[in-house]
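Quarterly update from the structural biology core.
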Amino acid sequence: MKRLKNQGTSRSFFAKLKMSSLLLFMLLVASTVFIYSCTKENELPPEPTNNNQPIVRGDAIMLPGDMTAKDSTEWKLDKSHSSVLWETNYVGASGLLTGRFNQFGVHELLPAEMTDYQVTGQPVKDNSWAFYENDPTKTFFSGYVQINTSNTGEPGRDSGCNISGMGTVKIVPGTHNLNITNVARIKTTKVEFDPLSADYIVTMDFTWQGKMTAPVTKSIVGRLKYIKKSKIQSASPYDVFGLQLTFQFNCRDFGITSTSISDKMEIECNMNFNNK
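Predicted structure, tokenized:
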């Protein structure tokens, strides 16, 4: 009888041990998945599905020139129909945090240009780019966003925790703040064909100070889509085309320590141009 009792106790012990091991294994797997999703950075956005269709590229060449109004050979950024969007996971919840930057441009900011501007339109020319559909070695672009213009649709948040969390300052009405502490910048270092689609793979330097004591530059990889030229019919017809750039970066590299957001920030730049 005592032997049977001991056998029962042994089986109970091993059953509990197996259950504890299973729970521990499940916890480790869940933790690994969470850490991976929060810390993976600089991942190329997913490949588009082209259903095995042949890749067709034209020979379009788009250049800004001097951005002279009514010169149809020079392309201008249509900022009112363009956008720079961001999103990240809201840690501990199932939803995303999303927003946009109200002020941005396609210009390589030089040190002498990093200052405040009291203007109503674009503070600097959107002319730091060129696009060659069939020769990506000639394609390049630089751009910037004004960090304090992040817009989530929640005014209290945009002028509160977002300002302190990203290490910048509140907006001064009527002022474009292009100071080094308030701009995040990109500059291409290589553009090449995507062999699996009509897109382009772009390598860029991403520079931002965030909450660090000086700007930090990281090399990141993104995907560029070309939306082919089309004509807008109106009293004075004009042409339009678009460039869509998607990429991601790790905000911890720039001193962002908020525990409410994951490490990975995803960015989508929708730039539309016209030749009016």
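The first helix runs from residue 2 to 39.
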